[in-house]
Amino acid sequence: MEETEQCRICNSATKLKWDSNVDEALSSDSFAITDAHYGKTSAVYECIECGFYQCSDLPEVLSYYQDLEDQAYEQGRKERLLQSNALLRELKKLITSGRLLDVGAGSGILVEAAIAAGYKAEGVEPSNWLQGEAEKRNLPVSKGILSDISHERSFDIITLVDVLEHVVNPLTLLKDIRTRLAKQGFALVVTPDCNSFFAKCLGRRWWHYRVAHVGYFNRETLKKSCHLSGLEIVGQKRPGWFFTMDYLWVRVMQYLPTWMRIKPMNWMSRITVPINLGDSLLVILKHQESFSNGSR
Questions:
Q1: Can you give the residue range of the structural domain that contains 219?
Q2: Is the pLDDT at 296 greater than 80, yes or no?
Q3: Count of domains for the chain
Q4: Reduced to 3 states, what is the DSSP secondary structure of residue 152?
Q5: Could you tell me if residue 249 is inside a domain?
Q6: E strand map for 133-271
Q7: How many whole angstroms separate alpha carbon 273 and alpha carbon 216?
Q8: Residue 70 maps to a domain
Q9: What CATH number is associated with residue 150?
């Protein structure tokens, strides 16, 4: 296959894995957190050395997130709070208090949970609408991205939950986390695993193959990315999630022919389902002692 731009992780050449199957103009709706157009992506390229998947044809996506509105995301706030509390329990094993920054904070759900858990928490979020929703709840979520946070500030905990796969410069983001992480601090990163059982079984139809995801990690490429960014993995697991039954029902129906799809019943919205399909990676990171800023 024809080689194209360099890998965003290791700088090696990449080759085309899948052509784009996006047949309409992209808009902020294409990048909705709750988007269910599974398997629809721009062209995906695979690194010939490390195996990282990236969407090289989308060099800039921030503007889509700045204009993003996602009402369905807020409707699932209760379930997302359960997930945030589960993530915080992992952090509580290592650090029980301190300054926490949630990057890509959405409407402040994890920030809300962290404050309730005793952390001095805040967030940063590029979506004007989501940041506004956090503001309505008097949650300390500022508008912008991590680079808008002063380098003079440091945090005991930095969380990056389902964000890394959305950025075109993952190493820059991870290095920015390192520079703002207190010397004895911890970072928590969650991202989908494109080498998981369901990713392999479903191929391109896997639910994490979406327009909004422009980089796809597996255990090895995530570890390499962290290492190259001066971060060391000190803990890892497969995180679970919480969804209402109707939310899951609609998404399962996407895998059936249109004529077989059945609408969810009203009672399904009242039932919360814990689910862990083992297709995401959670890593807890700290400063890598021997890291050199010039290393790659």
A1: 3-240+276-287
A2: no
A3: 1
A4: coil
A5: no
A6: 141-143, 155-161, 181-192, 215-216, 231-237, 241-244
A7: 26
A8: yes
A9: 3.40.50.150
